[in-house]
Write a structure and sequence with these properties.
There is one protein chain. The protein has no helices and eleven strands. Strands 2, 4, 5, 6, 9, 10 and 11 form a seven-stranded mixed sheet that branches. The chain starts with a strand and ends with a strand. A hairpin with a 4-residue loop joins strand 9 and strand 10. The chain is mostly beta strands and 115 residues long.
Length: 115
């Protein structure tokens, strides 16, 4: 079992920055990749960015050049640095941890970007 807990959401003006954190506990040795997803009202949950155990990163086209995913292995924590935020980035952001057999989700953290 893996548990993930997000933090760092909030309200920011367009053009501003936020950093989200996701701490993993439990069977962390079984995690193959961790990532961030988001879900805006009335829309499906979508991948924002993820990072594999080997360090390979992947980003949604809409955030490339603005968001950066990184990790601190010593703290078992993944970060999402979000710069030049836009109103369309407003959503609940969820941390995800993938093992060979399961997906684990956090409770979500709200990000709101005002114009």
């Amino acid at each position: 079992q893996v548990q993930v807990v997000e933090s760092g959401g909030g309200l920011v003006q367009a053009g501003g920055s936020l950093r989200l954190s996701c701490a993993a506990t439990g069977s962390i040795f079984s995690i193959n990749a961790m990532g961030w997803y988001r879900q805006a009202p009335g829309k499906q949950r979508e991948l924002v960015a993820d990072i594999t155990r080997g360090g390979t990163t992947n980003y949604a086209d809409s955030v490339k050049g603005r968001f950066t995913i990184s990790r601190d292995n010593g703290k078992n924590t993944v970060y999402l640095q979000m710069n030049r935020l836009k109103p369309e980035d407003t959503a609940v952001y969820y941390c995800n941890a993938k093992t060979r057999y399961s997906n684990y989700w956090g409770q979500g953290t709200q990000v709101a970007v005002s114009s």
